[in-house]
């Protein structure tokens, strides 16, 4: 024992030490990365963000330099705060607040102190910057919008938040990232890759030279330019038409699924969301819960589609073989089940065949067709499922898969849906006739409707709508170039298309013909309700219109939807017609039609529910007439708020 | 080692010498990493610390030759004289010494400084060996035990008075020597009990410590029923334990300086208040945290020689002296640092084996002293750098930067190499 005590102790201590080293260096070791090494300072060099062009090569979004004052709190030395605050145009309280916030985030990591200085402030500050230890200027590039339109499409950039940084370590505090629109969808393409310099620090945080002579440093890779499918002229015109209204316009090129215009009203100038005012302006826009300018009605507004949906029922009835185009249905001012009137109808010639049924939008005709489809099968649930599969093959009832970050699924109810609502098999086709005329449980977004008419115009197929046209040095995802077939045979489309053509020729949109262009369309009117003081109250109907043109080999398919615009051809139909003319002829010949749209406002209609007073709707209310809306000038890009933001007058 | 050639020149223990050379050489590489400023030009660039250390190493070899060429009997004969000279050198510090970092442990000669406490270690080891090998010394008597303790207490107190608490602890290592040479078993039991009691008293308070002690003593009392001693004896032991714990507590609260309290508090995790703990960590544990991070960042194979980012950035203060092992950890990884640990273990164990093999008691006791001193330095320094032991400022033998340290340890080791080579002439 005497001889081995020390020997034993030596061996035990040695083993403890080796275990400790194993624990520290092997077991407990975080994977080493230069990025996490606190002994190495990282300096970033931000690349140019990709430019955005419209389909005709017009530059929409470029860049402007921006300068952030960054802070590394633990490197800050006592300074002349008064002078510094004056240079930065902040108060001393701001300074203390910002300093503490940065310190709370991390004393050793850089965080933005005053972001996005103006060029003038930067010039003044740059000279004096070396007096202020712990602060430095980080150059970045901000967006510079060459246009005042398309805010919903173009989107905007904002600072990354901590949640993003945790998920994607590429970003560091102060970096900009796409927040909406294509900036978000194509963030990876547009942003490029920032360059990085690794600099060896000593423990006093002084730089002592490049780490390993700059072996690991990288140069910034510029972002790729992209071309989007938007026709900026058409987009601008759509936004002009939408002024003083709320709603959406979606125009698609049926031959390839490219989105030609995506208008939402009200909108705002994208330049509002650039620079130091971004957060303030974004809050103002976002918190406007009445007119909701940041809500893209073209993609997110989900309503019963109304009559345009009738053509789908016609197509399904033909495909299922339960109707012939020539088969006539008698309309006695509605659809009767026994002596019970299930749905009404407006006054028109009777009986109607398919062509007249579509042209006159006869409710009785479509309820008949729809019920025959469902009742072809023994079980209403099975019939409903088959019906729903047909409808869904037009891209309804689910996300379309386009490349913009927001959307709604819409709804196409199937058998299970009603089994849940009424109980298994405790319902039949008469319960759900509203679906026949696009009311009831069916819901769709404007882009789904536009895609639906594109599929009809193509006689049975569509391409997934998309906003990307070209990516510099790359191809667009092939899901956008893959044809999607509907479940309806091509031969069934002709009578339906003819019916939609006759909507213009002699039907509900006869007044909206464009000389020289054969348009096929369908009007729609959707009842809608809101709750005012928990009382369900009906508002003026939504005005809906879908169309494609020309009739053969269509170049444009369009869906227009105007909130509380009353009947289909009143607002939506007129706007669709003007949009088609603008796109195909480039010029507007029917200036009276254009004038009517630009001088009629729905603002007082929107104010009604908030007025607190009783109000009249639909035919009993009068339209508000305003001065003709002027086209915004593209060179008028000042950042003051109030451009295109329509607030209800309360 | 039994069949070593009888010719004197070949009788040195080459294993010890090779281990020594490996440690010194590898130490120098790490000093270069930890201390270089800018590019490394000449290895003997005197403006750089590693250049100076290279010179110290050169002088070390001269020293080794001198030590080995002196007659082995000289060390035994002059042990007392050497001890007295060393003690005088320590006393002289109070008059001629130079303050560095609050410790008055250096003589300044021109731009050079010499730290006599580094040389007092081998002198004390010689004196202890001399005293214990004396035929009249009987380690079973209290009187001789006290005399032996006196030999080591004297330098310990002198060094403590110079504010170098770390080096004082080194003299505790002679306990191993005394124990080997016949100190009663009871002392080992007392030593272990004292350590356990001290830790318990600090961690859980006097009351709980006394309670635990009472339970154990009660257990022993019943267990040893057959030769049951008087109950009073056990009560006395219990009282001694309780007052010892109270003493430790008092010592901690009133005698230790705040920074020493903090180091122990951090080690035993005594502080519960997170705010105070945070402040304590900032004040006291900065070196420790930096050093642990540096070691940990090395991983399995390390970042490579001269490639450690924390070493290059000089994140670990005093890295070329007391914290040199963190450089090994960062640049050479788990493999390199384990290699160093094994080198030290091998050297200490080698010296131990040689000591047991000595024919003369003087050589054996001295060899034991060498092994013990190396062991305590290695344990405390390495344990501290990897965060197992509270911060105590003592160098890593053969590794840390500094002439006095290197020479002190070299003399310590090579006197034993000389004694060992002479063992064939002993009878």
UniProtKB/TrEMBL annotation, chain A:
<keyword id="KW-0997">Cell inner membrane</keyword>
<dbReference type="InterPro" id="IPR036138">
    <property type="entry name" value="PBP_dimer_sf"/>
</dbReference>
<dbReference type="Pfam" id="PF03717">
    <property type="entry name" value="PBP_dimer"/>
</dbReference>
<keyword id="KW-0472">Membrane</keyword>
<keyword id="KW-1003">Cell membrane</keyword>
<dbReference type="InterPro" id="IPR001460">
    <property type="entry name" value="PCN-bd_Tpept"/>
</dbReference>
<keyword id="KW-0961">Cell wall biogenesis/degradation</keyword>
<keyword id="KW-0378">Hydrolase</keyword>
<dbReference type="InterPro" id="IPR005311">
    <property type="entry name" value="PBP_dimer"/>
</dbReference>
<dbReference type="Pfam" id="PF00905">
    <property type="entry name" value="Transpeptidase"/>
</dbReference>
<dbReference type="InterPro" id="IPR017790">
    <property type="entry name" value="Penicillin-binding_protein_2"/>
</dbReference>
<keyword id="KW-1133">Transmembrane helix</keyword>
<keyword id="KW-0645">Protease</keyword>
<keyword id="KW-0573">Peptidoglycan synthesis</keyword>
<feature type="domain" description="Penicillin-binding protein transpeptidase">
    <location>
        <begin position="247"/>
        <end position="574"/>
    </location>
</feature>
<feature type="domain" description="Penicillin-binding protein dimerisation">
    <location>
        <begin position="46"/>
        <end position="208"/>
    </location>
</feature>
<protein>
    <submittedName>
        <fullName>Penicillin-binding protein 2</fullName>
        <ecNumber>3.4.16.4</ecNumber>
    </submittedName>
</protein>
<keyword id="KW-0133">Cell shape</keyword>
<dbReference type="InterPro" id="IPR012338">
    <property type="entry name" value="Beta-lactam/transpept-like"/>
</dbReference>
<dbReference type="GO" id="GO:0009002">
    <property type="term" value="F:serine-type D-Ala-D-Ala carboxypeptidase activity"/>
</dbReference>
<dbReference type="InterPro" id="IPR050515">
    <property type="entry name" value="Beta-lactam/transpept"/>
</dbReference>
<keyword id="KW-0121">Carboxypeptidase</keyword>
Automatic annotation (TrEMBL), chain B:
<feature type="transmembrane region" description="Helical">
    <location>
        <begin position="186"/>
        <end position="202"/>
    </location>
</feature>
<feature type="transmembrane region" description="Helical">
    <location>
        <begin position="80"/>
        <end position="97"/>
    </location>
</feature>
<feature type="transmembrane region" description="Helical">
    <location>
        <begin position="398"/>
        <end position="417"/>
    </location>
</feature>
<keyword id="KW-0133">Cell shape</keyword>
<feature type="transmembrane region" description="Helical">
    <location>
        <begin position="332"/>
        <end position="353"/>
    </location>
</feature>
<keyword id="KW-0812">Transmembrane</keyword>
<dbReference type="Pfam" id="PF01098">
    <property type="entry name" value="FTSW_RODA_SPOVE"/>
</dbReference>
<keyword id="KW-0472">Membrane</keyword>
<feature type="transmembrane region" description="Helical">
    <location>
        <begin position="208"/>
        <end position="224"/>
    </location>
</feature>
<feature type="transmembrane region" description="Helical">
    <location>
        <begin position="231"/>
        <end position="252"/>
    </location>
</feature>
<protein>
    <submittedName>
        <fullName>Rod shape-determining protein RodA</fullName>
    </submittedName>
</protein>
<feature type="transmembrane region" description="Helical">
    <location>
        <begin position="49"/>
        <end position="68"/>
    </location>
</feature>
<keyword id="KW-1133">Transmembrane helix</keyword>
<feature type="transmembrane region" description="Helical">
    <location>
        <begin position="12"/>
        <end position="29"/>
    </location>
</feature>
<dbReference type="InterPro" id="IPR001182">
    <property type="entry name" value="FtsW/RodA"/>
</dbReference>
<feature type="transmembrane region" description="Helical">
    <location>
        <begin position="365"/>
        <end position="386"/>
    </location>
</feature>
<feature type="transmembrane region" description="Helical">
    <location>
        <begin position="148"/>
        <end position="179"/>
    </location>
</feature>
């Amino acid at each position: 024992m005497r001889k081995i005590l020390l020997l034993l102790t030596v061996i035990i201590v040695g083993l403890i030490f080796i275990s400790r080293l194993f624990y520290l260096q092997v077991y407990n070791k975080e994977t080493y990365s230069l990025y996490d090494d606190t002994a190495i300072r990282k300096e970033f060099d931000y690349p140019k963000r990709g430019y955005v062009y419209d389909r005709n090569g017009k530059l929409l979004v470029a860049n402007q330099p921006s300068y952030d004052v960054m802070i590394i709190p633990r490197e800050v030395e006592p300074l002349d705060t008064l002078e510094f605050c004056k240079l930065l145009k902040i108060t001393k309280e701001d300074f203390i607040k910002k300093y503490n916030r940065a310190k709370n985030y991390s004393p050793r990591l850089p965080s933005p102190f005053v972001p996005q200085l103006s060029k003038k402030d930067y010039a003044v500050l740059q000279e004096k910057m070396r007096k202020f230890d712990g602060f430095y200027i980080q150059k970045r590039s901000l967006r510079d919008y060459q246009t005042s339109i398309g805010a919903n499409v173009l989107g905007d950039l904002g600072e990354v938040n901590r949640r993003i940084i945790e998920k994607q370590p590429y970003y560091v505090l102060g970096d900009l990232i796409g927040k909406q629109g294509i900036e978000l969808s194509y963030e990876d393409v547009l942003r490029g890759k920032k360059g990085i310099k690794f600099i060896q620090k000593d423990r006093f945080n002084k730089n002592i030279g490049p780490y390993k002579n700059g072996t690991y440093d990288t140069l910034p890779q510029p972002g790729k330019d992209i071309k989007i499918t938007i026709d900026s002229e058409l987009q601008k015109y759509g936004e002009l038409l939408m002024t003083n209204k709320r709603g959406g316009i979606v125009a698609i090129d049926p031959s390839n699924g490219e989105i030609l215009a995506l208008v939402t009203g009200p909108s705002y100038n994208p330049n509002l969301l650039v620079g130091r005012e971004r957060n303030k302006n974004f809050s103002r826009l976002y918190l406007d819960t009445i007119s909701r300018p940041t809500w893209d009605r073209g993609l997110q507004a989900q309503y019963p589609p109304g009559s345009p949906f009738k053509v789908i029922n016609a197509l399904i009835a033909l495909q299922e073989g339960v109707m012939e185009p020539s088969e006539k249905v008698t309309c006695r001012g509605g659809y009767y089940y026994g002596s019970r009137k299930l749905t009404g109808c407006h006054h028109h010639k009777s009986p109607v065949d398919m062509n007249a049924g579509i042209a006159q939008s006869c409710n009785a005709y479509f309820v008949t067709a729809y019920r025959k489809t469902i009742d072809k099968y023994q079980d209403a649930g099975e019939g409903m499922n088959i019906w729903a599969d047909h409808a869904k093959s037009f891209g309804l009832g689910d996300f379309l898969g386009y490349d913009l970050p927001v959307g709604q699924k819409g709804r196409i109810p199937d058998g299970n849906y009603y089994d849940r609502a009424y109980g298994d098999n405790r319902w039949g086709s008469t319960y759900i006739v509203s679906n026949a005329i696009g009311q009831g449980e069916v819901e769709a977004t404007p882009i789904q409707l536009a895609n639906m008419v594109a599929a009809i115009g193509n006689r049975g197929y569509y391409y997934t709508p998309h906003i990307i046209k070209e990516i510099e040095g790359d191809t667009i995802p092939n899901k956008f170039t893959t044809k999607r077939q509907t479940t309806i045979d091509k031969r069934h489309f002709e009578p339906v298309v003819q019916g939609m053509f006759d909507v213009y020729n002699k039907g509900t949109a006869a007044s909206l013909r464009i000389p020289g262009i054969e348009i096929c369309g369908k009007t729609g009117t959707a009842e809608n309700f809101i709750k005012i003081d928990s009382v369900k109250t009906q508002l003026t109907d939504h005005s809906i219109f879908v169309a494609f043109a020309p009739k053969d080999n269509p170049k444009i398919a369009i869906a227009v939807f105007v909130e509380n615009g009353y009947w289909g051809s009143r607002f939506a139909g007129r706007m669709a017609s003007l949009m088609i003319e603008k796109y195909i002829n480039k010029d507007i010949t029917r200036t009276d039609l254009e004038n009517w749209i630009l001088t009629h406002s729905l603002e007082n209609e929107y104010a009604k529910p908030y007025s607190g007073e009783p109000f009249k709707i639909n035919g009993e209310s009068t339209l508000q007439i305003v001065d003709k809306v002027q086209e915004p000038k593209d060179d008028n890009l000042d950042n003051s708020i109030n451009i295109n933001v329509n607030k209800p007058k309360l | 080692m039994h069949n070593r050639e009888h010719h004197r020149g070949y009788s040195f223990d080459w294993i010890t010498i090779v281990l020594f050379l490996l440690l010194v050489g590898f130490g120098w590489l790490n000093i270069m990493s930890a201390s270089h400023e800018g590019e490394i030009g000449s290895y003997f660039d005197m403006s750089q610390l590693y250049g100076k250390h290279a010179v110290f190493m050169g002088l070390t070899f001269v020293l080794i030759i001198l030590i080995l060429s002196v007659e082995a009997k000289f060390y035994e004969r002059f042990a007392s004289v050497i001890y007295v000279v060393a003690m005088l050198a320590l006393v002289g510090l109070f008059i001629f010494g130079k303050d560095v970092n609050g410790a008055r442990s250096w003589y300044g000669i021109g731009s050079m400084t010499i730290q006599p406490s580094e040389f007092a270690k081998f002198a004390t080891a010689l004196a202890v060996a001399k005293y214990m090998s004396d035929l009249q010394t009987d380690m079973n008597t209290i009187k001789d035990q006290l005399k032996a303790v006196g030999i080591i207490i004297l330098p310990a107190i002198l060094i403590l008075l110079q504010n170098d608490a770390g080096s004082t602890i080194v003299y505790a290592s002679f306990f191993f020597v005394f124990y080997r040479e016949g100190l009663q078993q009871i002392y080992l039991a007392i030593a272990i009990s004292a350590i356990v009691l001290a830790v318990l008293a600090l961690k859980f308070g006097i009351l709980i410590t006394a309670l635990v002690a009472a339970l154990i003593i009660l257990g022993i009392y019943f267990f040893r029923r057959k030769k049951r001693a008087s109950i009073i004896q056990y009560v006395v032991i219990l009282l001694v334990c309780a007052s010892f714990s109270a003493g430790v507590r008092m010592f901690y609260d009133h005698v230790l300086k705040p920074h020493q309290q903090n180091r122990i508090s951090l080690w035993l995790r005594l502080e519960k208040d997170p705010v105070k703990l945070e402040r304590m960590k900032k004040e006291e544990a900065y070196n420790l945290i930096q050093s642990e991070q540096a070691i940990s960042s090395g991983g399995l194979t390390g970042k490579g020689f001269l490639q450690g980012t924390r070493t290059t950035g000089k994140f670990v203060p005093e890295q070329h002296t007391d914290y040199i092992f963190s450089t090994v950890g960062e640049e050479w990884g788990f493999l390199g640092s384990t290699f160093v640990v094994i080198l030290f273990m091998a050297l200490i164990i080698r010296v131990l084996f040689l000591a047991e093999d000595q024919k003369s008691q003087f050589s054996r006791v001295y060899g034991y002293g060498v092994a013990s001193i190396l062991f305590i330095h290695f344990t405390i320094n390495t344990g501290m750098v990897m965060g197992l032991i509270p911060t105590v400022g003592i160098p890593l033998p053969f590794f840390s930067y500094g002439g006095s340290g290197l020479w002190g340890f070299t003399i310590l080791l090579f006197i034993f190499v000389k004694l060992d080579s002479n063992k064939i002439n002993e009878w």
